[in-house]
From TrEMBL:
The lineage of its organism: Bacteria, Bacillati, Bacillota, Bacilli, Bacillales. Belongs to the ABC transporter superfamily. Energy-coupling factor EcfA family. It comes from Thermoflavimicrobium daqui. It holds the Pfam family ABC_tran. Keywords: ATP-binding, Cell membrane, Membrane, Nucleotide-binding, Translocase, Transport. This is Energy-coupling factor transporter ATP-binding protein EcfA2. Residues 3-244 form the ABC transporter domain. The keyword GTP-binding does not apply. It is found in: Cell membrane. Its EC number is 7.-.-.-.
Amino acid sequence: MEIVIKNLNHIYMPGTPFERQALQDLNMQISSGSFVAILGQTGSGKSTLIQLIAGLMSPTSGNIQIGSYHLTPNSKERLAVRKHVGVVFQYPEHQLFEETVVKDIAFGPRNQGLSEKEVTERVQMAMEMVGLSPELGDRSPFQLSGGQMRRVAIAGVLALSPEILILDEPTAGLDPHGKSELLNTISKLHKERQMTVILVTHDMNDAARFADYLFVLARGTCELEGTPGDVFKEQDHLVQFALDLPDITRLINQLNRQIHPPIPTNIFSMNELENHLIERLKKVVSL
């Protein structure tokens, strides 16, 4: 489902001394089946935006079109949109509450009115999608590791079969291994199921490595957008928004001060960089 956002504004507590404009004349387009990252510092409007896309709030003005649905200030389509959009908020494991893993994942589908057979199929599918062993099904989610608990929470969202998956800082608090495992799982899901994925993150490394397209938010509007290669060329702009470059881009910039021709700056994994340098070395040796 394509997402088209036009002239979107959202004001919290309008007409009071605490009035605050979170989004201002925001325009964005997210292609169906894409993997995008939304970047920005705290207060840039990221969390407000994803809640509006998910139909959890109504905008003050403007329009969000999701497929054939329109979310406007007086729209009655928010409930319908929620059936197509799954949201994984920060530390989703804090929302686990059932006595077993299977029961927790089954909660959403069961409340959609599905038959027990369909619920069981959805649970099995979701556990497989996030790499949870069937043997864990009867265990309490609170007996699992932090990474496994987060997978249970994400499986609970995936069991609803959303066409759009929104992840708000999904790796917060995980160790490097757990972080890498989780993002690789999400990337695999995106590729296998052509699911639209919206990743909200502060981590430039994750954005560069996994997303096809980036949106940089600041002061409630989209200040910069493009492929990772395009966005991370704009170092001066990123500094203005208190955002850094990915580690690998900073490494390539350092290398480019000493070698010629320069290494392309649209390389975002160490494997790609190693392969590029090996190919360059082969050409030098063959001369």
